[in-house]
Amino acid sequence: MKKALELVRVPAEGMMVVCFDEPTEQVRVGRIQRLQRTARGLEVDLLYADQYVQAGDFIWSTYFYGKRDAPAHSGIFEWPGDWTFTFDLAERSLPSRPGWLVHLVF
User: Fold this and answer.
1) pLDDT tens digit string along 11-61?
2) Measured between alpha carbons, how far is 6 from 90 in angstroms, rounded to an integer?
């Protein structure tokens, strides 16, 4: 049986995380590139993992879709599995395809 996603108490740059945005119900998977606390809240630049689509689908179907214990609020959650992410493609693509990096505010 899977355990519920756990909120990250002290997020840090370099962490591999799941980010859930409640209003849009979007799940994002990646590595925290930059983290800053501002008057707007916690601002995060998240670099998508090279396996973003597969990882996102896995997280959505395992922890969110139709699950009673799915997170009800936006937040940054620990990556729950042993999956080893790669970021080579994302890092190489950033200069020409900045869409690999997403800015989130919590």
Assistant:
1) 999 999 999 988 888 899 999 999 999 999 999 999 999 998 899 899 999
2) 26
Helix (H, G, I), strand (E, B) or coil at 104: strand
User: How far from 2 is each of 46, 51, 69, 96, CA to CA, in Å?
Assistant: 25, 21, 11, 38
Give which of 40, 42, 45 is closest to 30, Cα–Cα: 45
Buried/exposed 52-67: b ≥16 CB within 10 Å, e otherwise: beebbebbbeebbeee
pTM (predicted TM-score): 0.86
DSSP 3-state of 42: strand
**Residue 22 CB partners (closer than 8 Å, separation 6+):** 72, 73, 74
Contact status, residue 34 vs residue 99, Cβ threshold 8 Å: no
